[in-house]
Amino acid sequence: MSTAVPPQSQPKIGPNDVLRFVLELFAFVSLGIWGFTAFPLPWPGVLIGLGAPALAILAWALFLSPKAVFHIDPFGQALVEIGVFSAAAIAWWLMGQPVVAIVFAVVAAVSGILHGRKQLAG
């Protein structure tokens, strides 16, 4: 007896899914770096350095994760994603790294568009 899951029921993870995961982690880390470097330590630097990524992680978990608490339509998911990724890009811009901000924003936008097209297609 085999307990393997039939191939048709396994979720397909493509290159864009891996890229989106890396972008997600990069956004969270970026917000933490921004909080710790842009504000004086210990206060408010520690609070913002821990709070900004925590809020982004909470939003992602509530609305975008595969086991999201609130199931919203693809347009609502896109708005949450744009908010998190835009915050990370703006954080890099404010830290004086416009190249990182622009590259991150462009890659995140292209990945989001591809993901949105895939979601809306079926």
List the helices and strands and how they pair.
Elements: H1 15-38, H2 45-63, H3 74-94, H4 98-121
Helix pairs in contact: 1-2, 1-3, 1-4, 2-3, 3-4
Please provide a brief summary of the model.
With 122 residues, this protein is mainly α.
Explain what this protein looks like in three dimensions.
The chain has 122 residues and is mostly helical. 72% of the residues lie in helices and 0% in strands. The protein has helices spanning 15-38, 45-63, 74-94, 98-121. Helix 1 (15-38) packs antiparallel against helix 4. The protein is globular, with a radius of gyration of 17 Å. The two termini are 34 Å apart.
Derived from helix and strand composition plus strand pairing, the structural class reads mainly alpha
| Low-confidence region ranges | none
Biggest sheet record:
none
Morphology: globular
Compute the average pLDDT: 91
In percent, how helical is the residue content? Answer: over 70%
Secondary-structure element pattern, one letter each = HHHH
> What's the end-to-end separation, in Å?
34 Å
Q: Strand share of the residues?
A: under 5%
